[in-house]
Structures are given as C-alpha cells and as structure tokens.
Amino acid sequence: MWSPAGLPRAALLAVAAAAAALAVAAVAAWRRPRPLREVLFFPSRPCCLEALLAEAAAPGAPALPCPCPLPRAETSLSRLVRRLLSARRSLDLCIFAFSCPQLARAVQLLHRRGVRVRLVTDAQYMGLHGSQIGRLRHAGIQVRHDQHSGFMHHKFAIVDRRMLITGSLNWTTQAIQSNRENVLVVDDAACVKPFLDEFERIWEEYNPTNYVFPKVSN
Amino acid sequence: MWSPAGLPRAALLAVAAAAAALAVAAVAAWRRPRPLREVLFFPSRPCCLEALLAEAAAPGAPALPCPCPLPRAETSLSRLVRRLLSARRSLDLCIFAFSCPQLARAVQLLHRRGVRVRLVTDAQYMGLHGSQIGRLRHAGIQVRHDQHSGFMHHKFAIVDRRMLITGSLNWTTQAIQSNRENVLVVDDAACVKPFLDEFERIWEEYNPTNYVFPKVSN
C-alpha cells in the first residue's frame, strides 16, 4: 500500500517549499485592502458641514463653532463630501445639474488645495437659476460643456483616477433633500477605467476650440 | 547550521498536507466565476431588437426576418435588454421616467414568461405623454408610485435578486438615443444588497393602502 511516509525526503522538501510560497501568497491576499463598496441613499437629512469643510481647509486648526441650528450628523451628504475631500491629486467631474452650494464649496476647496479639478456639465442646465457653474469658473476651475440638443446627463466624479462616485443624484439641493436617489462609491479598476476613458473622451470633445458660434452679420 | 533536511519526516508530512489544502483552496478561488462588471455608455446607436426579443419570447423558434432598416448590431441598448432578459425569477424596477417602447416590451415579455416583475415609478412622470406605465399596468404588472413632491429619481433594476443595473439612464428613447448616459451592471452582494433593501423599503412605503386621496364633498 502507498504511504506518503515512503516518499523521498527531497520530494517532501519541495512540497514544503511550495506550501510556504502558497502561504505567503495567501497572507498577501488576506492583507490586501478590501475593495471599496459604499452605497448612499437620498434624501439626506439636513446637516451642518462646517466642521468637515473647515478641517479639510486647514487640517488640525481649531474649528470655530458653527452658529447654525443643523446637527453635525453623519448623513449621506456628509459621506459624499468626505469622499470628495479625500482627493489629493485630481477630481474629474461630469455633472448634469450642479446647484448645491455645499458641494460647490467642497470642489472650490480642493481646487485651492492644488487638486486638479476638471468639470464637464450640460450647456442647457449650467445657466439655470442657482447653478454653481459660474462661481466655480470664477474661482478658476476649468469647465467644459456640450453644444448638443441631447443632455450631458452623467452624474459622476472620479477621485485621484481611482475612486468612482456615480449614481442618479444630480448635485442640487432639491435632489439631496427631497428626492429618492442613489450614489455608488467603488474603486475597482474594471468600473473606474471605463468612466475615466469616457471622461477623457468628453473632455476632448467639449474642448472650447471645437465650440461653434453663430456668425454675426455686420 | 540549520537545515530543513534535518526536520523530522512527520513535520514535513504535516507541511505537505497544509500545502495540499492551500492548493485546493487556490484552485477553488481560481475557478470561482469572475465578478460581473459591465459599463454601458449612451447615446446608443439605433438598432433592431426584434431577433433578440423573438428569441427570448420563443427560444429556438425560427426568427422571422424584420423588415425594418435598422442594423442588428450589438449596442449599449441591446446589451441592456439582454441583461434584463436574463431574468428567470424576478425583476425589481425603480425607474423615474419610463417611455421607451422596446424596454417596455422586454419587461412585458418577462412578465408573460412568469418572472415576478415589480415596478416603482414617479407619480409626476408616470402620466407624461409617451409613458409606458399604463401599458405595463394593463398587461398585469404591479406598479407602485410615490405621493411626494420630491421625485422618485432612481433608475435601477435588480435581476433575480443578484444582478444590479444602475446609472444615470432614464428609460426613455430620448435618453437612449440622444443623451450622454451611463449604466453599470454588477453582481457583487455588497452593491446589490443595499439596493435590494432600498427597493423593499420603497415597495412597502408606496403600498396603495398608504395612498392618501383627496376628500370628495357631496
């Protein structure tokens, strides 16, 4: 009858070495950061974001107490803002409707901090009452828009080219406070890469050198 | 000097057994189906879906040639329809605006095939010109809607409680053919479960027994 005890010592040593290699690989896989999967639902309870924005603007500085009556709770909006504020190098935005002042402040803050912010939006919605696009442009942020009859209806953000924030949520106070909405935050490359490619495609297509202006007659 | 060759045979055998167990686990992990990550972008080229719908309605039956001039190409719309038609047991839909006749046909087809279809939509958009909600209700599909001033703005589908289809795309021909839109198809539980829970929450909240009707004076 066959018995492993009868195997030559060299074979057992080889198997032991393979086991060690597999164990190292298993530990490495176990220690790998877990993939990011966060789902946020709206409407979000109103909350005060002052402490969050102040900490991001001047890390470690003593926060001034905010006199507003809103709670400093953790909400879907505060989680979304926290994800955006985690940007260190770049923030690529494709936002159909952008009128939420708090999100505009977060984006401006990143721009001031040296993060490369690029923003694509919809030509028809960027001029509506309450739009934050003018304010962001005034702050020096690069903005491009379509010139089509169809809408640039995406609502996604890519943080540092590795985290995708996407869903049904337009960046408006109405959507955040009143609508049923979802936002998904993921970091796996199979999701992020196609959105990055789509962003770069749109960014080039909406280059102002491609804009067409109506001819003015003398 | 220490030498592995000096280890007792029993220790080497134990290590070899551990190696075998790790190898079995590694093979199992390798054979596990890869997670589903599909990203669809719109606008989608117009295409003929007749063959796809006919095959889903009567698998294996000879397809009648369609006289329409549209190509039978693989497009973002055909891929979306294919994912929906893969449903075998259930289809849970949360769709803000639903006016695309082709997507309505796919949903009706699943209903006829015995798939349990539940549809949540927005009260203000369900009555708009071209809406498919009446047709779907007429076909016997359960539909529930909000009664709020805010929008039920989700646009997601869950197939067989294990595949999530979500994004910016409303199910309208305008959005499919003219807008810049995205749809993400994923199957990992960390994404699907929260959406399933959200669907069940909304389904219960929008139960018609909770609807409030204006009082009629005599």
CA(first)-CA(last) distance of chain A: 104 Å
User: Which CATH top level class of the domain at 73-208 in chain A fits?
Assistant: Alpha Beta
The mean pLDDT of chain A is 91
Can you list the strand order of the major beta sheet of chain A?
1-7-6-5-2-3-4
Please give the CATH architecture of the domain at 73-208 in chain A.
2-Layer Sandwich
CATH fold topology of the domain at 73-208 in chain A: Endonuclease, Chain A
> Largest interface by residue count?
A-B, 52 and 51 residues
H-E order of chain A: HEHHEHEHEEEHEH
User: Count the helices of chain A. How many?
Assistant: 7
Main sheet makeup of chain A? 7 strands, mixed
Report Rg of chain A.
24 Å
Summarize the amount of helix of chain A as a percent range: 25-40%
How much β-strand is present in the residues of chain A? 15-25%
Oligomeric form of this entry? homodimer
In a few lines, what is going on in this structure?
Chain A is an alpha/beta fold.
Can you describe what's shown?
- Chain A is extended.
- By secondary structure, chain A is α/β, with parallel strands linked by helices.
- Chain A has helices at 9-31, 50-57, 76-85, 101-112, 133-138, 173-178, 189-205; strands at residues 37-42, 90-95, 116-121, 142-145, 155-159, 163-167, 181-186.
- Chain A has a domain at 73-208: 2-Layer Sandwich (Endonuclease, Chain A), CATH 3.30.870.10.
- The N and C termini of chain A lie far apart (104 Å).
- Chain A has seven helices and seven strands.
- The first copy, chain A, is 38% helix and 17% strand.
- Chains A and B meet through helix 1, strand 1, helix 6, strand 7 and helix 7 of A and helix 1, strand 1, helix 6, strand 7 and helix 7 of B.
